[in-house]
Amino acid sequence: MKFIKIGAALAASLAGLCLAQTTNTVTNWKLATGYRAESFHTQNIAQFARDVADASAGKLTIEVFPNSTLAKLADISQTVRDGKAQAGETIMTSMVKDIPIAGADSVPFVVSSYSDAQRLWKLQRPGIEKHFAERGMKLLYAVPWPPQGLHSSKPVRSLADFKGTQMRTYNSTTLRIAELLGARPVDVPMVDVGKALSEGRMDNMITSALTGVENKVWGQIKYYYEINAWFPKNVVFVSNKAFDALKPETRAAVLKAAGDAETRGWSASQALATSATEELRANGVKIERIPPDVDLEIKRMGEKFSREWVRSVGNEANTIFVPYYIK
User: Fold this and answer.
1) Rounded CA gap, 171 and 79, in Å?
2) Of 57, 62, 92, 260, which one has the fewest beta carbons inside 10 Å?
3) How far apart are CA 117 and CA 115, in angstroms?
4) Distinct helix (H) and strand (E) counts, the chain
């Protein structure tokens, strides 16, 4: 009888220990991104990770792996799907082969402001969430890069000014734009922009003011036009398996922190667009408005691009652009 009492006490003690271990279990996620630690996107992710750790009382920690140290940018979504990382960030356009509607935010000359970009994202998001779910992932949030503007070594007074010039291209969209404008496309990676300009291999390019600042384009680039050609977005996501394994209160903490990160990130992007443009101005680049007739032609090109994109993607694209244009 005495033995039974001791055994019961021991069992109760072990049960209490197991409960304490379960209660204090810490879950660790790896989050892979292809961008530098100094990028405003990565800084936003780092704050998201801190918010999650605080809100979960340390029960969920997220370790951020920047600069492709865990996986290359183009491979990050597959890395998450394969379970080699629990979460990741990539630019949405890197996913268009697998998820065609991911390309909606990079259709040029359709979105002209941050409010337009947010409206487009609200229309695009349900389809993105559906495709992510089908691939075993959950979308957490999306944040745009600063809008793509026009950098030029000479003033632009009409579309004819592009004919025969050397235009930097880096994807199918910019290549198509160069073709329509009668410019000669020059494939130049972002890291080689400064070198290509100094060597006289390019005359103009469509990219953000931030890219211009990072490459110190002043000297060769004399003009910058805020045409807001498109607002490419980065998406942050997690595997469903990792998310569903969390307790309900921790899942709620992750979603709350993700919502805060999206709001914070959009504000940071807009502030950075302004400060980068001012830095170009401070270094002698003339910030000018595109002439009204050129602006009109650009909008017509946008309609052409959107029709082409809808045809290439199919009916799913109509759920984005039909309500977007109807407003």
Assistant:
1) 23
2) 57
3) 5
4) 11, 11
DSSP-derived 3-state class of residue 71? coil
CA distance 64 to 308: 38
Token pair of 74 as six digits:
């183009």
Distance separating alpha carbons of residues 64 and 42, to the nearest angstrom:
8
Tokens of 96: 């268009």
Give the Cα separation of 93 and 256 in Å (integer): 26
**Rounded CA gap, 37 and 43, in Å?**
7
C-alpha–C-alpha distance, residues 238 and 140, integer Å: 7
Q: List the structure tokens of 160.
A: 């004819």
**321 close to 310: Cβ distance less than 8 angstroms:** yes
Helices 114-134 and 248-282: angle between axes, nearest 10 degrees: 140
User: For 274-297, what is each residue's pLDDT tens digit?
Assistant: 999 999 999 999 999 999 999 999
Question: pLDDT of 117-135, one tens digit each?
Answer: 999 999 999 999 999 999 9
Share in percent of the chain as helix, strand, coil (round to 5) = 55, 20, 25
**pTM given for the model:** 0.85
CB distance 81 to 239 below 8 Å: yes
- Residue 63 and residue 317: Cα distance in Å, rounded? 36
Angle, alpha carbons 275-280-284 (nearest 5°): 140
